[in-house]
User: What shape does this take?
Amino acid sequence: MHFEVKVEVSPREGIANPEGSTIERALPALGFVTAGNVRVGKVIRLQVEADSSDDAKSLVEDMCSRFLSNPVIEDSLVEVLEE
Amino acid sequence: MHFEVKVEVSPREGIANPEGSTIERALPALGFVTAGNVRVGKVIRLQVEADSSDDAKSLVEDMCSRFLSNPVIEDSLVEVLEE
Assistant: This one.
């Protein structure tokens, strides 16, 4: 079966997030004074072939730890969206 | 009130996604032969101060069209997560 999977890879708490900090510094100049705590990560959407939703999830979690994210500095969240 | 907002910025259909293509080419070499159609985007999490959830959403949608995304080549999806 085909599954559509979404992975969110974001910097761990305490790890510097320069892209987020840059956005945060720029927002007030554009009139957005009420926003803060900006953090930027990656989102990866892919399709996998697996026997079940659980299999698809564990396959993509394996991909994350080996390749799609750096588990030392990044958290990844795998979500199986649909068949 | 404070709202936690998540924005997913992803390349529009038909727009080249070199990061996704590179991941897709690399996966078989790592043993992941059942994955395909990989697309990579950005996810931005931020906190905003607004009167209501709808206000928070429209504020962040305004940010997206002016600053956080390039509407010509990217779609953005705003989701207000919680107060």
About this structure: The longest helix of chain A spans residues 53-68. Helices of chain A lie at 18-26, 53-68. The first strand of chain A starts at residue 2 and ends at 11.
